[in-house]
Amino acid sequence: MTYTSAITIAGISKSYGDHPVLHSVDLVVARGSIVALLGSNGAGKTTLVKILCTLLKADSGSATVAGYDVASQPAAVRSAISLTGQFAAVDDILTGRENLILVAQLRHQDHAGQIADDLLARFDLTDAGRRRVATYSGGMRRRLDIAMSLVGNPQVLILDEPTTGLDPQARNEVWKTVKTLAEGGTTVLLTTQYLQEAEHLADAIAVLHAGRIIAHGSLADLRQLLPPTTIEYVEKQPTLEEIFLAIIGGTASQQATR
């Protein structure tokens, strides 16, 4: 199916009872791009993701994913996307390879074993593939989780807070993985609270606040919203290392003259 944008959201609103969560949200995600959806807790990010994944119905507005309408063509949307939630959906008892084979079988893919081996190689997990996932580090578990999301070659990958709870090294591993996916043509919608994550990964950034998109554009575009930078001069205090070296250097000089 031919479509011009991977995700198009127009006027989406959603309330839970008397509590409005989304207010006429508009957003377009270009094919093959990484778009970061920034927002604090309660901004409405997860609600919007659930609507895009057909897990929740909007009260008003429309949305298409990979050219399919989320309300009238939910089965087609589900076949075109994959969702990775905030916590890795892996089975600790199974090996990494067995996790991938299970997902491939559930998605009715032929040659499940070959698919698993290819994805293990792609995510640098071949050596760990026959180990139980309970022995994996946090970064390895997350990479396996994303690999499982790619079974069936989805056109759009939605990552909902993908690095929550990860240490800096594991977070860098996930960032590298996401960049590689986008370079291969996969469209990525990334929801995050980590500003550094959005700055590091995203081609475009949308800021969701109190259920509304209040800013959208590249990092350079968003920087233009702020006043021009000013140059200020501040006094630089010496570090302890500089003090230490100065002291021992002076002592050495004094001893040399005696």
Q: What is the structure about, briefly put?
A:
This protein is 37% helix and 25% strand.
Can you describe this structure?
The structure is a single chain. The protein has 258 residues and is of the alpha/beta class. It has one domain: Rossmann fold (3-Layer(aba) Sandwich). It contains nine helices and ten strands. The protein has a six-stranded mixed sheet with strand order 6-7-8-3-9-10, with helices on both faces. It has a four-stranded antiparallel sheet with strand order 2-1-4-5, covered by helices on one side. The model is unreliable at 252-258 (pLDDT under 50).
Order of helices and strands: EEEHEEHEHHHEHEHEEHH
Name the overall outline: flat
Return residue spans where pLDDT drops below 50 for at least 5 consecutive residues.
Answer: 252-258
Cα gyration radius (Å): 24 Å
Number of strands: 10
Main pleated-sheet profile: 6 strands, mixed
Top keywords for this entry?
four-stranded antiparallel β-sheet, 258 residues, Rossmann fold, six-stranded mixed β-sheet, alpha/beta
Blueprint of the fold:
Layout: E1 5-16, E2 19-30, E3 34-38, H1 45-52, E4 60-65, E5 68-69, H2 74-80, E6 81-84, H3 96-106, H4 112-122, H5 138-149, E7 156-160, H6 168-183, E8 187-192, H7 195-201, E9 204-209, E10 212-217, H8 219-223, H9 240-257
Parallel strand pairs: 3-8, 3-9, 6-7, 7-8
Antiparallel strand pairs: 1-2, 1-4, 4-5, 9-10
Helix pairs in contact: 3-4, 5-6
